[in-house]
TrEMBL record:
Broadest EC class assigned to this enzyme: transferase
Native source species: Piscinibacterium candidicorallinum
Catalytic activity line of the entry: ATP + protein L-histidine = ADP + protein N-phospho-L-histidine
Alphabetical UniProt keywords: ATP-binding, Cell membrane, Kinase, Membrane, Nucleotide-binding, Phosphate transport, Phosphoprotein, Transferase, Transmembrane, Transmembrane helix, Transport, Two-component regulatory system
Membrane among keywords: yes
Lineage: Bacteria, Pseudomonadati, Pseudomonadota, Betaproteobacteria, Burkholderiales
Domain of life: Bacteria
Enzyme Commission designation: 2.7.13.3
GO molecular function: protein histidine kinase activity
Places the protein is found: Cell membrane
Function, in words: Member of the two-component regulatory system PhoR/PhoB involved in the phosphate regulon genes expression. PhoR may function as a membrane-associated protein kinase that phosphorylates PhoB in response to environmental signals.
UniProt domain Histidine kinase: residue ranges: 41-252
Protein name: Phosphate regulon sensor protein PhoR
Length: 265
């Protein structure tokens, strides 16, 4: 393991001995490298769509109207930049505080329905997407939890070929509850799994890009789960499919009251 120490002070305390006070700065170095990499990545990710936009603008003039196809490409790239900036702002908001933005009761069934509606729109009928019953509700920040689940379900669509199946279910036990998104899509090889939540880490850059990915989705999910004292679990087999789960600890589970009819008067 590489490391670096800096000498803060040298104190001679005998003719043959000197006390050297040092500080281990390996952690500071590591953070510094991370910050530099991040800035380089963001710049690169922003420059790509900007190059397309300015290239087409360069070609345009009042005498040569822009073709419908070029306009469409420009729109796509503008949307990509917008999405990237939105995700960057979301990440920095999530990192600036450790606690969820709200502690409210979150009804899971409608939340799952909304996430799946978005995924179905993205799928445009190319996948079969099924929802299983939700055994309980949650306590936390609804907006954050919804964005985490939406990320997982839309990823399932983006990384599953046409004709694939996606299931959103839940598993409740005495330890907590897991919201589980399972697909039979492209899957992820074991060596990539630990790195999926790193910012801008993608197994297949072009697939991520072609399906409108920013490379920040799972980093956002990881932060949302940390804030809720939970975690993101991933299991996957290359070529067979994946299962991504949002696990929340017991103290966040809200059991539903059994529905009782009001007594007749
Ligand atoms: P991206 O915008 O690239 O999808 P994410 O952070 O959401 O960024 O995901 C990171 C990477 O994890 C993706 O690029 C992809 O390689 C992999 N991945 C995420 N979800 C799935 C899935 N359901 N099946 C296979 N690979 C996935």
């Amino acid at each position: 393991k590489s490391g670096r120490v800096v000498v803060l002070q040298t104190i001679p305390f005998s003719p043959t001995q000197t006390l050297i006070v040092t500080r281990d700065v390996s952690e500071a170095d590591r953070l510094d490298t991370m910050r530099r990499d991040f800035i380089a990545n963001v710049s690169h990710e922003l420059r790509t769509p900007l190059t397309v936009l300015s290239g087409f603008l360069e070609l345009a003039s009042p005498a040569v109207p822009m073709s419908a196809q070029h306009l469409e490409l420009m729109r796509t790239e503008a949307v990509r930049m917008q999405r990237l900036i939105d995700d960057l702002l979301t990440l920095s908001r999530l990192e600036s505080t450790a606690a969820p933005s709200q502690e409210e009761r979150v009804a899971l069934a409608p939340l799952v329905q909304r996430a799946v509606d978005l995924a179905r729109a993205l799928s445009a009928g190319r996948h079969e997407i099924r929802i299983e019953p939700m055994p309980a509700d949650l306590r936390g920040a609804e907006r954050e939890i919804e964005s985490a689940l939406t990320n997982l379900v839309t990823n399932a669509v983006r990384y599953t070929p046409t004709g694939g199946r996606i299931v959103v279910g839940a598993a409740l036990d005495t330890e907590g509850i897991a919201l589980v998104v399972t697909d039979n899509g492209v899957g992820v090889a074991a060596e990539h799994i630990p790195r999926l939540t790193e910012r801008f880490y993608r197994v297949d850059k072009s697939r991520s890009r072609d399906t409108g990915g920013t490379g920040l989705g799972l980093a956002i999910v990881k932060h949302v789960m940390l804030r809720h004292q939970g975690r993101l679990d991933v299991s996957s087999t290359l070529g067979e499919g994946s299962s991504f789960s949002l696990w929340f600890p017991r103290q966040r589970v809200v059991l539903r009251e059994p529905h009782t009819e009001p007594e007749p008067e």
